[in-house]
Design goal:
The complex is a heterodimer of chains A (about 110) and B (about 110). Chain A has about 110 residues and is an all-beta fold. Helices cover about 0% and strands about 55% of the residues of chain A. Classes of the chains: A mainly beta (about 110), B mainly beta (about 110).
Chain lengths: ~110, ~110
């Protein structure tokens, strides 16, 4: 158990809908990262937050947004969903700035868009 | 971040040591070598990381060459549960930097 909690585990929704994925980082970790893994793309970095502030952005679509709240949990919002958004979405956390700290991943949310 | 090169797939017999190589010839002095694995569709699991010295923990050993251009992850007594995709990643040490995953090595442990 990595200590990173993601909910829900599975999500099935229709095209055009909006969903919210939630991540609770490990206790004491200030950084949260979101990754997408689809069958043909491998693990792709989406976005990173540190202590509530956005720190890095990857290939995140404009239809996607995220935030990190004062209690350090994070949410990834996916809107106007398309079939191609079907994927595993992973959240990871790390201690953060100024230290060499591994990322620890949750077990993901499997999103299916029909 | 420096690019890494790993074999696409490897096989190993159960109970034997699994040695997974990784080339990172463009690694910089402040970049660490990290290893992760992903079993089926679970979240990537952290294994070990190092800068220039060899490292060992309860899961594995990491051997980094003196010039730091390559490394080897060693699973000393592989079990069937070690079947997974193994990722070698080079990452800047300081600060909360993201990990950039490549294609990794699909390791199959055979009974």
């Amino acid at each position: 158990d990595s200590g990173v909690t993601q909910t829900p585990k599975h999500l099935i929704t229709a095209t055009g809908q909006r969903v919210t994925l939630r991540c609770s980082p490990r206790s004491g970790d200030l950084s949260v990262y979101w990754y997408q893994q689809s069958l043909d793309q491998g693990l792709q970095f989406l976005i990173q937050y540190y202590n509530g502030e956005e720190r890095a952005k990857g290939n995140i679509l404009e239809r996607f947004s995220a935030q990190q709240f004062p209690d350090l949990h994070s949410e990834l919002n996916l809107s106007s969903l398309e079939l191609g958004d079907s994927a595993l979405y992973f959240c990871a956390s790390s201690v953060g700035q100024g230290r060499v700290s591994p990322l620890h991943f949750g077990n993901g949310t499997r999103l299916t868009v029909t | 971040d420096a690019k890494t090169t790993q074999p696409t797939s490897m096989d190993c017999a159960e109970g034997r040591a699994a040695n997974l190589p990784c080339n990172h010839s463009t690694i910089s002095g402040n970049e660490y070598v990290y290893w992760y694995r992903q079993i089926h569709s679970q979240g990537p699991q952290y294994i070990i990381h190092g800068l220039k010295n060899n490292e060992t923990n309860e899961m594995a050993s990491l051997i980094i060459t003196e010039d730091r251009k390559s490394s080897t992850l060693i699973l000393p007594h592989a079990t069937l549960r070690d079947t997974a995709v193994y990722y070698c990643i080079v990452r800047v040490g300081q600060g909360a930097q993201k990990l950039v995953f490549g294609q990794g090595t699909r390791l199959t442990i055979n009974p």
